[in-house]
Write a structure and sequence with these properties.
Blueprint (H helix, E strand, L loop, with lengths): L2 E8 L4 E7 L1 H11 L3 H21 L5 E8 L6 E6 L3 E6 L16 H5 L3 E8 L6 E6 L6 H10 L5 E9 L5 E11 L5 H12 L4 H6 L4 H9 L4 E11 L5 H9 L3 H10 L2 E5 L6 E5 H10 L1
Parallel strand pairs: 5-10
Antiparallel strand pairs: 1-2, 1-10, 2-9, 3-4, 3-6, 4-5, 6-7, 8-9, 11-12
Helix pairs in contact: 1-2, 9-10
Length: 292
Amino acid sequence: MTDYLIKALAYNGQLRVYAIDTTETVRKAQRIHDTWSAATTAFGRAITATSLLSQSLLKGGNKMTVKIMGNGPTGTIVIDGTASGDVKGYLKEPHVHLPLNKQQKIDVKGAVGSSGLLEITKDLGLKMPFTGQVPLVSGELGEDFTYYMAKSEQIPSSIGVSVFVNNDNSVRTAGGFMVQAMPDADEAVLAEVEQNIANLPAISVMMAKKTIPEEIIYRICGQKNTQILDKVEISYRCDCSKERFAKSLASISPADLKLIIEEDHSAEVICHFCKKKYVFTEAELERLVKDI
């Protein structure tokens, strides 16, 4: 089944609302990086939140890079997202499994850490990309992305992200939502929606019961108050290529390339995002030296 995101307006345009199913996307990420339960949950939440923000903040061929730099055992988590719905990522330490927290849930805060930074760089096609940075406020990630939207983007928002991990580290469900208040939003509307969100079960639990993104939005805002605008396919897709890595190798000094040729007679490059391997033969490396 294809993952997708729904964009909607609610209460006569007072709210922008997004809901997303990232189950297959996070499953693919888990398989590629062989993540364990705590790392899978943190990684999946980061992928889901990045997909939500990409659809809210980007247009056309724009893209963003999210870096979660916490003091937990997963280390830095990096996610790239695009306006077209493609997402990819990696994390420093995928093999993180922790005891359940006090709520008997996977300890995402323990995996990510409660101290560190959330940094988002948006490439909007201008001369210089825009980078916003905020401190981590919880390590649970939903709250951290909500804080980023308020402080860096000046958009009052509520973001919820959830991943259900099976005992064998595979992903059962993953998804999330984001509600954004427009400047003229009525306080009574905001209070009603806030209460509805507080009463929601975990997104992953609802999705395990076959709740789709449209229904999540209706549970938050009410179907009669909601206008569905768009549906966007979401997928884990890496755009790496041998040509791109050749350009990276070409940035190495000729002396260092010659040393690789003399000692190894070839070079193997592995993509951080998809683990695909690219081998450059001695002849290919010599051509790179010549081109340089």
